[in-house]
Amino acid sequence: MLPLLVAACVNPSSATAGQTPPARACTFVNPVAPGADPWVVRWSGWYYLIQSRDRAIWVYKSDKLTEPTSTGVRVWTAPDSGWNRTNVWAPELHHIDGRWYIYYAAGRAGPPFIHQRSGVLQSTGDDPQGEYRDKGMLDTGGIWAIDLTVARLGGQLYAVWSGWEANAPTDRTPQHLYIARMSNPWTIAASRVRISSPTESWERGTELDLNEGPEFLAHGDQTFIIYSTRESWLKEYRLGQLRLRSPDADPIDSSSWLKTGPVFTGSTTVYGVGHASFTTSPDSLEDWIVYHSKVDSQPGWDRVIRMQQFAWHPDGSPDFGTPVPSGEPINVPSGQCR
Length: 338
What we know:
The protein has a single domain (8-331), classed as 5 Propeller (Tachylectin-2, Chain A), CATH 2.115.10. With 338 residues, the chain is mostly beta strands. The strands form 6 sheets. Strands 3, 21, 22, 23 and 24 form a 5-stranded antiparallel β-sheet that branches. Strands 12, 13, 14, 15 and 16 form a 5-stranded antiparallel β-sheet that branches. The protein has strands spanning 8-9, 26-28, 33-34, 39-43, 46-53, 56-62, 71-77, 86-96, 99-107, 117-123, 132-137, 145-153, 156-163, 176-184, 187-188, 193-196, 211-219, 222-229, 238-244, 257-264, 271-280, 287-294, 303-312, 318-319, 330-331.
């Protein structure tokens, strides 16, 4: 049974007469929910978590980051036929030019998971939990592609995803990170360029070499891509980092990205940390990482969602620290407990 989220607010009025009221305390413990590949976005005072299960995509809404699954709505169900009828994975929710877009991976069969491609949904209005229309498969060259994310750099919209060099008959195929320019949120307008491969010793697995789960993270004038590496089903799953060499560097030039890692790894009690997203506290004063971990050290994909505050190194790169152990009290995000 999963540990449940614990949140406590001490009411100063509960102090007995003549005593100094106790300090206000608000804490929670990890994990906060079951699930994997958590994507959280803060918008208009709310936090939205998007998840996939049972061939469908759900969007959850909460005013508390630490209670991400308060109210859920199923916004899309995979069709009964077509390229995206099964294996719906790792959706992301992005607000672009007044609309919401959901990027996700899906396939027509599997296992083996050799048919995965990336697709996009567009909202019909401005409600993240509202109706969406299917805009189809994104053009990743007709080659296996998952974990697609998007961001604007210098006014240009880019897509980054995890893919194979060529389609293969086995899903134990090395995964790389690719980038391409987009002409709009549902159209990749140029050929892909590989910007990262699992070549470093800390990226090399025992069963599979992979780079996946890329996510953009900006700080000041610096741009990072935080990604997952090693095998997702093993306790060694971890995070690596790409940093854009300078604000005016060309993101399409692979030499513009500088690799560092690992930047976040598991511990003796928290296993297989990966596929993170990033947000801020309600008052925007703190930066938070939301990620998943395995429930135990054995191979498998049974995972839970965790979160904690992170800081920044003097060079401007993120300092994620170490995973806070399960059950250890953590202060809730600044501005949440009022």
